[in-house]
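User: My collaborator sent over this chain with a note saying "see what the structure looks like." That's all I know about it. Can you take a look?
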Amino acid sequence: MESTEIEIIPTDSSGELGDLNADVFYKGIKCEIRIVSDKDALRVNAYKSFKTDLIECLNYIEEYEHQSSKIIKTALFKSLVITYGRCFAESKERGGIKLEPNHIFKRSENVNHKVSHNYIIKLRNDHIAHHSDMDAEKSKLFFVIPPTICPDKTPVVLTTSGKINIDDISELTTHRIKETINFVLEHVTKQVDRFLEKLKRSQFDSL
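Assistant: Without extra context I'll predict from the sequence alone. Here is the result:
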């Protein structure tokens, strides 16, 4: 069925979030619409959601590279880390389905893919997933006492922050992160196509 021959007519939008709220016609003939909610459909929806998130990550990093404002760059990078990390974390919304790094990166000949993945996940776990607790735990205070021979013996207090500092993120790092996201996106896209094909066959076989 070619998409150019399909016409979708919006209907009443008073249904629940996620409802189609449309009639579908093929060459002017109204089609039957089935809600598919089996295991294959769950996989398709989960992987399409991963694909959307990964494309969003690429948009974040593209914008990050063109930004000069530190606060905007920090917000973009945090959004990237959160969104990417979500693909590898279990969630009820995705039926407990998540991406498995060992399965994905065993096919990669580029060791930087796994290194960059681990880097992003560590940032998520250390700085964002436990943000309120880790800020206090990671931040440190140092009391610097000048040598006794110095005429000015006033101590100096120095502090470090547990938050992400984008000044520590090099262009090489962002380049490798982008390569890694593209690699994961390629894997996810293939999985979406594979699961969709399987779903189509099972639905047509039941007609």
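A starting point for your reply to your collaborator: Residues 40 and 200 are 10 Å apart (CA to CA).
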